[in-house]
Amino acid sequence: MPGWNLKNGELNNVRVSEDEYWSLFNFVFSDACMKRNTYKFGLIKSIMDNLFNCVFEDRSATYELSYEDIFEKFTINYWNLVLRYHLKQMRRDGRTEISKIESILMQAAEENDLLESLDYEALPLDDKKKIVKQVSVSCRRNVIGALYADMDGKLYGFDLKSDSIVLSPYAYDFMLKYKSELEKLNYYAWAKFMEKINSDDVLVRVLDKLELATPKRDNLSIYREILYKEFEECNCFYCGKKLEHIGRGIHVDHFIPWSYVKDDKLWNFVLSCPRCNEKKNNKIPTEIYLDMILKRNEIIRNNMDVVVEMDFRNYDSEQLKRLWKYAQLSGLKQFSTVRP
User: Fold this and answer.
1) What does the pLDDT average to over 189-194?
2) Fewer CB atoms near the end CB (10 Å): N or C, the chain?
3) Domain boundaries in the chain?
4) Comparing C-alpha atoms, which of 261, 89, 267, 60 is closest to residue 165?
5) Is the overall model pTM greater than 0.70, yes or no?
């Protein structure tokens, strides 16, 4: 039975070397791997974008990642690529030039009169859930098994009747460690595929468009309010300077840069003065700040606030330590300042 037609696949949970994982991923990125569309690239991106939403299961010593989380990211990525950037995602096969996912998103945009703004976040919550469910049904049937087979079952196991895939701990750690490198290779292979099926006018800055397919949240005011008012974080996390003016005078900073995590979670946010935020930019805070945020997060996570509960759902202090370490291995430089 071909991989795409599988209904389930057992995780090959053996210790896999980094060299073998590189070989498996490079096969998927290569032209030798059969692809009619870009779904495999999209699935890899969605899994890596969700590494911080995985739940470690002690009994099986594996990580679970829900289909809902995977295909919400998948939907957001393709919404922008298809509707905002007008990038085709499927080879011509003599039958249709539009993949099922493109069809779902185009129909959703038309129904919600969003052809002008093309903003996924503008959709009502119920509509988002409906679209994600449609995308999930299609991709669970067509791509989960296909990528599983390409990776020889050593990346994840799955059952289409369950709610999640099961990631190997070796695969999880490999993807976390080499997240930046894998993303770049995935983007490059994805871009090469799209170059063959799109006209030149839509391929301008195509790698940037792939990078921006998962948008950074612009409005972080809710996190500023929670940290400043509820937890009385009234001093710059980095230099200790008193933060006096709510709004422009207080910046919400990703402790581990967004370029690495590509997610907005309270456990990764700190408040800073504009000067420190601009100096830090895309850098990793030194170890003293790592200790500080770990202690801060232990205080916050016991709060019953709805946003806190949601953002800390899968928080793991050991994972944050590894993120801090691996982000530096990916090439991000350290940042420090002198606290009073």
Assistant:
1) 95
2) C
3) 3-211, 221-335
4) 60
5) yes
